[in-house]
Amino acid sequence: MTVLLSACSEKYIVLDPKGPIGQSQKDLIIITTLLCAVIIVPVLILAGFIVWRYRDKPGRKDDYKPKWSHDTRLEVTWWAIPIIIIAILATVTVRYTYALEPSRPIESAEKTVTIQVASLDWKWLFLYPEEGIATVNYIKFPDNVPVRFELTSDAPMNSFWIPQLGGQIYTMSGMAMTLHLQADQTGKYFGSSANFSGKDFAQMRFVAEASTKDEFDAWVKEVKATGNALTTDGYEQLQKPSVEEQQQFSSFPEGLFQKIVTKYVPEGSQGHHHGGGAVSSNEQKQKPVQPETSEDADSSHNAAQSTHAGH
After folding, report:
1. pLDDT in tens, 3-60
2. Which UniProt keywords apply (predicted)?
């Protein structure tokens, strides 16, 4: 299988990270694979050897011991090694899980760029609250600068993923998640939906481009000068199920991300405000929604599904 796949034109992008989060995840993949191989490889080799070595054949004169059932040395060996490996795996996984918590900011002297993300059927809407612009199926940010993604969904549950920069994280209606990533070099990176969400989910791909700071600033100015405004009516049309090409908008309605997060809370009812207690829909309209951490999501959705896989 490895030989056949090596002929494919696509690279193993998960194993070709271009950022600190992706690199740490690659290290974890390699470490866990090697530790598991310590158990799996000898077992597979011994399985074949034992079948061949103790096969029945004419003229065999070895002693036959049908009542043999215990050997202390073998018992200690095949129980001790897996226990040690599992203990090491547990320690490594806990350390990496804590270090790679998606809501944990990336330490940097550079100012973090914030991008708000809304998964729609079947496209991605990106809002730049500080720059005042919006895009569809395309994002741009400076290299060597941390990017804070605030994520929600105005459609079925989905999953946001830029494989070379870091692991995927779910987007869910009524919730605001947080993900920090960074690109260490300029380039265009593949982004996609990593969750089944309908007939055209495979078309939910986007380009994540890391550029120099000057190029990013120039692009923002260009979008503000040449793009059309995303109006409320325009968003309502965009929200309808469809496959879209890349688009750029010079502006978008104020508070659009917060409205998307809270739009499914019935008027006057008590909605779940992540990071705090239950608040009414009227209060939510007045108070910006703070993206939650994965701990918040785990506590509120533990019975349904983990909110984050691989990151």
Report:
1. 666 555 456 899 999 999 999 999 999 999 999 999 899 999 999 999 988 887 888 7
2. Cell membrane, Electron transport, Lipoprotein, Membrane, Oxidoreductase, Palmitate, Respiratory chain, Signal, Transmembrane, Transmembrane helix, Transport
Write down the architecture of domain 13-54+70-99 according to CATH.
Answer: Orthogonal Bundle (1.10)
pLDDT at 294: 43
| CATH number, domain 113-254, options 1.10.10.10, 2.60.40.420, 3.30.110.40, 3.40.50.1970 | 2.60.40.420
Predicted confidence (pLDDT) at residue 106 exceeds the cutoff of 90: yes
- CATH 2.60.40.420 domain residues, the chain: 113-254
- Of 31, 163, 179, residue with least CA distance to 101: 179
Nearest to 83 by CA among 39, 32, 31, 27: 39
Q: How far apart are CA 216 and CA 209, in angstroms?
A: 10
Go through the chain and tell me how many residues it has: 311
pLDDT at 74: 85
User: pLDDT, tens digit, for every residue of 175-188?
Assistant: 999 999 999 999 99
Q: How far is CA 118 from the centre of its chain?
A: 15
| Residues 12/29, Cβ–Cβ less than 8 Å | no
Cα(63)–Cα(60) distance, integer angstroms: 9
The single-letter DSSP state of residue 288 is P
